[in-house]
Structure formats: C-alpha cells, structure tokens
Write a sequence for this structure.
C-alpha cells in the first residue's frame, strides 16, 4: 500500500476548508541570479508557518468521530507539533505532544499557544518514543508521525497539486528533504499530473543522510547532524525512502553559507520570511552544482518559522 | 481636473503587464490580536518592494513615444526613485534621478541597480528642486512627482481595485499616509466601487502633519519629522490634500512603539517583511484608539524595503 494521486486529491478536498491556498510568487532578481524561471510556492505563508499543517490536518480529519474523540499524539518540537496541535484544536479534540525538556521555550510556547497538551521527556529518541507509547496506551490517541504516515504524505502532496494548477508547465520541482514526507507527496502528485517532470531534493551538506541513503540504496540514519536547517535533521522513514528512490531524480547538497545567502536574498528581494530549511531548496539553484538554466522551476518554500532575534547573517 | 475611477481603471489596464497582482493574505493570530477580520493587500510583494511601482509605471506608460524618448526624471531617495528607474528601464527610456548626497548607499545602489541615471545634490529641498529643474531643461525629461501627480495617484489606486475584486465586502480600508498619493488613489477607487466604505489613514505620531492638516483645514508642512517610518515624512501635496479632505474619514496617529510591535508581529506571524511605513497601517488596529472591532478591514501594506542588518527591535 502506498500513497496515490487519488489519495492526494482526497486529502486536498478534505483539508481545503482549513488551510490557506498559498500564493505562488515570482521574483525577477532571483530569476536573474539563478538563471532560471523560478516559481515560489509559499508554504511559509501556510497556517502555523509551514507545509506541515497540510499533512497534520489530513491525518486529523481522516479520523472517524470515534477515533478523533480519543485525540491525537506525536513527538516533535518543531513545526509538526504546532501543526498537529492546531489541526486538533480546529476539530475540537485533544492533541498530546511529547517535547524534549531541552527544547527552546519559544517552541514549547507555540505548541501550548495552539492548545497542545505537552508532556516533557528526556531529550533522547528512546525517551520520546516510550513517552509517546505510554500516552497512546493511556488515552487511545491516534499517533500522527511527522512523515512516516500515508495520511501525512498525502497531505503534504497537496501543495504540489496547487502549484501545478497555477503553473502547469513546470520542468522541475525542488523541495527540501528531511524525513522525506514533503518530497514523497510532491513527487507522487507532480509526476502523475505532469509526465516527465523532474523532482529534485535539496539537503544540507551537514545533514546529508538522504543523499548518502540514495547512493547506498538503503536508509543511512542521520547521526547527530549540525545544520542551521533545523527542520531537516531527521532520517528517512520506511515509507518515504522507497518513494524517494523511485521518484526523485537526485538529491543535491547545499552548504551552510549557500543556505544563508539564499535565505537573505529571498528576504531582501522577495520580501518573505523563509526558514533555513526552505533556503536549502533555493540553495540548489543558488550554488549551481547542477545545470537547470533556463528551466521553469517550482520551489517548495517549506516554512518561515525563524527566531527574529537571532538571524544567521548577524553576529551575536 | 481630478482623478476618477475611470482613470484608475485605465491605469490598471495600462500597467497590468508590468506589475505583480499581489496576494491578499489573512492571518488568524492577527485577527485575534486586533479583534477584526483583516485582509492584507501585500504591496510589499510588488515589484521594487512597494506600491510606488504602480504609480511610476502608470506615469511612464502614459507618455507618448515622443515624450518617452526624452526620458523621465524625479527627485527621491526612496521607493519612488527605484520605481521610476525600473519602469523606465522596462520601457527602454532614461530615468534621471536626483538623490541627496547624504542618502544611504543601499538606496543609491538600488536605484543604480535598476539602471537609474543618478545626479547627486546637496541635501536640501532647494538643491533637489533646482537640480531636477536643470535636468528637465537639459533633457526635456518628463517629471514624475512621487505623489502630487494625477498619473501617479491613479496608479496607486489600482491596488484598491484589486483588493475589492478579491474581497468585495470590506467595511474599511486603512492605508499609511505620507504625501498622500496612496490614500488619494485608494479612496477614489474604493468609495466609488463600494458605496459607504470607510477610508482611514495611519500616520506616525512623530510625523503627524496630515493629521494636523486635516484639523487645520489647510496643509501644515512637515517640519523635520523623526520617525522610523521613513516613507511617511513628506508633507501633503496640493492635489492630494483636497482629495483626502473630501474622502478620508479620519487620520489616526500611531506611536513608534506601536509601529515596531505591529511590524514584528506581522513578520513573526504572517511571515512577510513589511517596512515601518506599512506597520503604521497595522498600528491603527494594534493600538485600538478607534473602535473597528468585528469589521472586515483591508490594510494596504505599502512596502517591504528594510535594512536586514538593522532591525528596529534589536539593540545596536
């Protein structure tokens, strides 16, 4: 069983009342800079400031009323936690969120602000999983994984459907790659809607486990990566890896300085706030390791959640 | 002779191939914060990062070929200078821009980047006007004033036409007020398109010449105002003041701290970059000096040109 375009279309219908239809922006300076025609799908302007809301929303609204009444749960301290909390609040059900006790308070506050019921745990994967498991057993809540979940993958694919409705003749779509949920959903949707479209992943050089997994033909786990792209530190999942192997043309790694330069350029010229994990997709074009000149390129800007007090181009 | 809705519709047709149709964004957090339904018309996402491109573009493309061949000229160091330079480059004609020799180099570079032919002058109004006059006499270039020009006022009004196409049932439109070009064009368009709509101006407390002019019934010039809203320091013009007197319900002044708080909130929650001059329009809602609760409110976000190295909420 895998995710199909039909699943993605159903997800799009299901979540339509709850999400923003995000704009697709163009910018001449960016086009000149990278030598291509770039179409920015602005999921940074999505609710909770990231595409993650699409997948979480699809998962939450896929539940039967009986299932939903027991709530949903996940472990995350990032955008997915906020996404699950908000989707659950919209449906009027509890969201149990497991957060490591060393997570920045801004992240905890954001989840709490959307009504998420937080349980803190030690900052280890084991503690996160055992805490989540206890909550699931106690409450009967439905687990919504950040990426290794068909409902989530289908939800993430809905952004590409909208992008191709707006710009049907794209040659290439580039997305960031972390756990692989976004690029999985995107590639399934895009390759079915437009035959021959190329799907490329952007990944930080400093967290290049997906790049290495593709070379190795098996999942190489991410081991303590250090990148400013804090949304892209996860390893691939058992559901996402085979989709990526089948659909994704290649994964291109981007340096930290390339991400920072791309991020600042987009802020300055396109006047939108993107987070480093989004900048990695622009970074693929910026660093020109591969030749995409003259093509029509859709870029999934994944999110815009940034601490405005600590910008990566400023000294602190 | 004044500007009519027909002029604005003609301007909209004229500039359509050259401008961005900017999106209208909504944000639940902002709605909750201010207690109203807010629709953000994102002219910060316009070309050159500000609504000014609309008026400049309309002026440049209103010229006959013979007039255009002699070029256009203006004195400005702000968004209008960039707007005239870019519109002229698009039409393939020279743009002579007079800039005071103490203007920040980032502004000079931006104008030069759009191909503007810069003449520096002493930083006094007299020097700016005499330098511009000399250029006009030497070249025969057409003067495009930043706001006291019917073509510019008509161009600025096109943003309100688009906003009301997208959201026809607005109760109120709020715009920032500097020289008055934006609010003049906006009020003419909006009040003709939707009978009974209220048009309100936002102005910095520290640069409240329009507020005082409305009270006095005559133009009170702006005298050396100090506000972070560097786009709103001009005095009203002989064309804009009568339109504002006739159409604008009231001008609401906003504190510097209210502008900074509004600006940061929009960056954080809506993930778009707005300049302080835009934040003054949000500031009207933020500070709640007048009761607009529960209404559907269009806010013209005028621009997004900000020095990312010097953000007003950071200590330097």
């Amino acid at each position: 069983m895998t995710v199909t375009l039909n699943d993605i279309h159903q997800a799009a219908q299901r979540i339509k009342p709850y999400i923003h239809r995000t704009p697709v922006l163009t910018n001449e300076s960016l086009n000149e800079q990278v030598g291509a025609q770039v179409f920015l799908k602005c999921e940074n302007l999505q609710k909770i400031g990231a595409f993650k809301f699409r997948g979480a929303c699809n998962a939450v609204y896929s539940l039967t009323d009986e299932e939903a009444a027991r709530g949903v749960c996940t472990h995350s301290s990032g955008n997915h936690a906020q996404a699950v909390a908000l989707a659950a609040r919209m449906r009027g059900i509890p969201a149990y969120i497991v957060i490591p006790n060393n997570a920045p308070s801004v992240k905890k506050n954001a989840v709490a602000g959307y009504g998420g019921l937080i349980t803190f745990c030690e900052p280890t994967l084991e503690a996160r999983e055992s805490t989540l498991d206890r909550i699931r057993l106690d409450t009967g809540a439905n687990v919504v994984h950040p990426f290794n979940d068909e409902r989530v993958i289908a939800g993430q694919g809905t952004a590409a459907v909208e992008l191709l409705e707006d710009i049907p003749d794209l040659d290439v779509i580039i997305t960031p790659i972390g756990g692989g949920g976004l690029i999985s959903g995107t590639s399934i949707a895009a390759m079915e809607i437009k035959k021959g479209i190329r799907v490329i992943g952007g990944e930080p050089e400093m967290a290049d486990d997906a790049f290495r997994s593709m070379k190795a033909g098996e999942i190489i786990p991410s081991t303590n990566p250090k990148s400013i792209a804090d949304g892209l530190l996860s390893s691939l999942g058992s559901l996402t890896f085979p989709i990526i192997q089948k659909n994704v043309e290649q994964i291109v790694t981007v340096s930290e300085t390339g991400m920072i330069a791309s991020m600042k350029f987009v802020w300055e010229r396109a006047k939108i706030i993107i987070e480093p994990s989004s900048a990695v997709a622009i970074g693929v074009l910026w660093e020109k390791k591969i030749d995409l000149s003259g093509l029509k390129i859709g870029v999934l800007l994944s999110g815009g959640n940034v601490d405005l007090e600590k910008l990566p181009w400023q000294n602190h």
